[in-house]
Amino acid sequence: MAAKRRAPVPVVMAMAAAAVWVAAVMEATMAATYTVGAPDGLWDMQTDYAEWVKPRTFHPGDKITFTYSPELHDLVEVTRAGYDACSNANNISASRTGNDVVPLTAVGTRYFICGLTGHCDSGMKIRVDVVAAPGPGPAAAAGPTSSSSSAAPSTAAAVVAAALLLLNLRLPLW
Length: 174
What we know:
By secondary structure, this protein is of the alpha+beta class. It has helices spanning 9-30, 49-53, 80-85, 138-141, 155-169; strands at 33-35, 63-67, 75-78, 93-95, 99-103, 108-113, 125-130. The longest helix is centred in the N-terminal third of the chain and has 22 residues, at 9-30.
């Protein structure tokens, strides 16, 4: 019986590194960037933001861009109380670049308003619900859960775990 050949450790390590890189690139390309109000509007007083946000699902890693004229508007992230009252008194952050990119880094609800007098009261406010991306398995088929602590591991983490397993077992590669 012939002995099975095992791939040299440097080859396995190179393959594992390539797998990790591919997983990282795939995960980065899965994130979406949304321009608030697009395609028909921007961050302005004419757009219905409740309608704009309805068909969209936001996940950690996504980004939202607020495009507006800085002479006419601004962007203020507020608490729920600030959102409900259209108050920027205790804001979380404020921007006035006209092209503000907000990374959505975690599951939760974010609230944004235009802080100029009367603009929020005229509807220039948006609530963005960031939900965990569905993971593999039966739990994903049931839909999102109210707990974010049970989120499935990312694709990159799964590939890293598989690469480490390959390195540890030194499985033959044909």
